[in-house]
Amino acid sequence: MPSRGTVIRYLRRALIAVPAVGLALLVYVWLTLPDVRVLASVNPTTTAFMDLRAEEALQKGQMPRRAHRWVAYNRISADLKRAVLVAEDDAFWQHEGVDFKELQESLERDWAAGRFLRGGSTITQQLAKNLYLSPSKNPMRKLRELVIARRLEAELKKSRILELYLNLIEWGDGIWGAEAAARLYFGTSAAYLGPAESALLAGAIINPRVYSPGRPNARLLRRQQLILRRMGAVTPPESTIQLER
């Protein structure tokens, strides 16, 4: 049996090693992250999630489906912007990529339940995950998501982050972005979505492969009503171009 002195020496070495390992891990994560600066002027044509869904379809022997049409920020309904902010990140304008209060509460819930229940993710974190990562909940993937989110906030305006998110979010099987979703579910452009339509779309983000704005179930309709009641409290940046029907 090791002596007390030997045990103490082992503990000291372990305590010294932990910060060094943590620092090395952070350096590795930092050096292997994508360069998000290009997103300030370039609209992505694909994302990690789009590629993942295509791969899943091929594995099932199906042809991948991708309906996606980019639309500028000022061509997206203000109602949809409000609805999505309410549904996904009502503190969007206050945080810098990570809502640490919500993240802590989420971790506490996960710890109490003994498993991951929800991510506590901001819109910026979701964008980071959709663009570059995977749905995996492992700690390394989460760490990369947090760092990328902070980089996005440092390099891009809030309106650009929201524009990217609304154009790249999954809204059904092979349906990507607000324009494709608006045309499929409502036969109109994203520019002309009204409050009720916008709230349905925003409510479906929680699980777009289960909840369809075109065929809303009882739970999605309840989410729609909750979002509608709260939309007036959120004010996204105004468009610089006035649109006409």
Brief write-up:
The protein has 245 residues and is mainly alpha-helical. The protein is built from ten helices and two strands.
Explain what this protein looks like in three dimensions.
By secondary structure, the chain is mostly helical. Helix content is 55%, strand content 2%.
Assembly type? single chain
Overall spatial form: globular
Helical stretch tally: 10
If strands are numbered along the chain, what order do they take across the biggest sheet?
A: 1-2
Give the SSE string: HHEHHHHHEHHH
Please render the helix and strand layout as text.
Layout: H1 4-31, H2 48-59, E1 67-68, H3 78-88, H4 100-113, H5 123-132, H6 139-155, H7 158-168, E2 175-176, H8 178-186, H9 195-204, H10 218-230
Parallel strand pairs: 1-2
Helix pairs in contact: 3-9, 5-6, 5-7, 9-10
